[in-house]
Amino acid sequence: MPHSTDNFYRARILERREISDNLWVIRADPSGDFNFVAGQYATVGVQTPEGHFERPYSIVSAPHEPLLEFFFELVPQGHLTPRLYAFRPGDEFTIRKKAKGRLTFDSDSGHKNHLLIATVTGVAPYVSYTRSFYKDWKDKKFGGEHRLFLLDGASRSRELGYREELERIAAEVPWLTYVPTVSRPWEDSTWKGETGRVDDLIRKYADQWNLTPESATAYLCGNPGMIENVTGILQRRGWNEKAIRREAFFKDAPGHQA
Q1: Rounded CA separation 252/78 (Å)
Q2: Could you give the CA distance from residue 155 to residue 187 in angstroms, rounded to a whole number?
């Protein structure tokens, strides 16, 4: 175990879902009270004879759900994901008791529109938002005054790990618009949806959805190259730093799935 067990829970995997060869989802019992806000991340770790390896991962589950859910991508040379990749239901990992992260929902600016941009596992915090609002919608605690516009990118459609759930909710409620896009359609012959990288589609959909710096907050989560490119595009369109929220995944550094 890590140096002080006071700071950690031993979470136990209860379910595992394969998305593709290098992408998978787990749901785990944190084994204690784990409080967080939708959009935050948890610091996950594995204890090995070589040491205790940790990385932050955005939380997929909503705060009201009893299990913690994570969407992982295997980084073959990473310190953590190759070890996590071998884990199955019943296996345990460490989780720091305190959630962190600034990619929380903007309820302060007065903006009613929210432009959510993701690549692959970067969709995690937006699923957390969506599940939270969906529960409140069902419970008549949310009237749809906030609108979510989600552009979700991956190389191939099978890597869009939450497409079915998000499409189902978007078809049912007026406050979620969901567009998945595939950047390598030549490797995905059955795909009939949008194609191209989110970087190349952001202008098209911001215009189509009539999203402006005056009315919308932008959220970026995923590949650091995407975040840099889209930040530049948004800034040139008038979005300032306060109206852009970011969570980048870097190799072997905070925020990345490694």
Answers
A1: 7
A2: 9
